Amino acid sequence: MNTLPVVTDCWNQIGVRGDHSCPELPRVVHCHNCSVFASAGRRFLNAPSPDGYLEEWTRRLAAPIEITSSDLTGVLIFRLAEEWLALSVLVLVEVTLPRPIHRIPHRGGILAGLVNIRGELHLCARLDQILGVDRSEVACSISRTGRSLERLLVLHREDERWVVAVDEVDQVYRVALNELVEVPPTISRALVRLSRGVFHWQGKSIGLLDDERLFQTLRGRLR
Amino acid sequence: MLVLMFQIGDNRLALDIRRVREVVPRVHLDRPTMAPDWLAGLFVYRGHPVPVLDLHHLLGAGECPPHLSSRIILVPLEREGGDERLIGLLAAQVADIREINANAPSMPSLDSSSQARLGQTLVEGDTILHLLDLDHLLPDPVRKRLPPP
Fold this sequence. Notes:
The structure holds 2 protein chains of 2 kinds.
Chain A: H1 10-13, H2 25-28, H3 35-45, H4 53-62, E1 72-80, E2 83-88, E3 92-96, E4 101-102, E5 111-117, E6 120-125, H5 127-131, E7 151-157, E8 160-166, E9 168-176, H6 189-193, E10 195-201, E11 204-209, H7 211-222
Parallel strand pairs in A: 2-11, 6-8
Antiparallel strand pairs in A: 1-2, 1-9, 3-7, 4-5, 5-6, 7-8, 10-11
Chain B: E1 2-8, E2 11-16, E3 22-25, E4 39-45, E5 48-54, H1 55-58, E6 71-78, E7 84-99, E8 106-107, E9 121-124, E10 127-131, H2 134-137, H3 140-145
Parallel strand pairs in B: 2-10, 5-7
Antiparallel strand pairs in B: 1-2, 1-7, 3-6, 4-5, 6-7, 8-9, 9-10
């Protein structure tokens, strides 16, 4: 166990919440991986529990679990240009930072090229073209700290693997499949055909993509 | 093997996470009068009473500190006849999950059979880790005195 003394809240001063000037930061990437942060957390946990803590948890644990919906499924929420979309986590392998996509000569269309994900070459498809979403006019998404929000999603279903680029990835959310509503016909036809439905989340309408049809389309359009 | 790490007195203990149902914070425990001192008390978990065993008392290690990191580990315990019941284990420093090598150099338990036993002793890095064996943790007299479900 690490016993480094905690003297400051350095993560707020020179760490990821501060000015990023900590010399350790390049090595550990994020303060969450740093032993100083971990020992600060440990010190917090070694404090006596605050007033009312035991009472609150006694009450909370006594209450039976409310089963709201039995048909919950995990989906990853992401943005493509102006459209907020979701895809089942069952087909998601990883979310990774953008890296060079190598175009294949004489092949265009939905095939963006090959991309190297940790030594393995994957086919990268243009999800915007498949779904009929116009991505050309949207400026590159930048976070508050000035970094690109663009991500690559690695998808896997049965024995097929695809990589697609998206403009922003939000979070994994559990959605009740029986609460999905039909896709409004005002959006692009391809998007309607490849969606299972729409759900509402934080004031946005999010289209849940049908992963089976999406993979069929990817396979079909590539021939 | 993935294990939940915790501390009893000076000993580092580990429990296979496949045996753990849930880890919950400390709560107010109702202590029946005349209860043995290893029984920290009972609390209501999702509508059912669950007995909580104080591992510090059971293993003769003094008092469990009243810290935020002292928590109750809920484990299902099999009873005769195939059904199971939930019991809580009160332990300190319940704050880590770690991957350990189950084939690390080890030594069988040294304790005598009439007392509570810690279980197998493993070498983890440069320290000693006791792998808690739930089936042998509770000596028969203790097991028999647990409140029925």
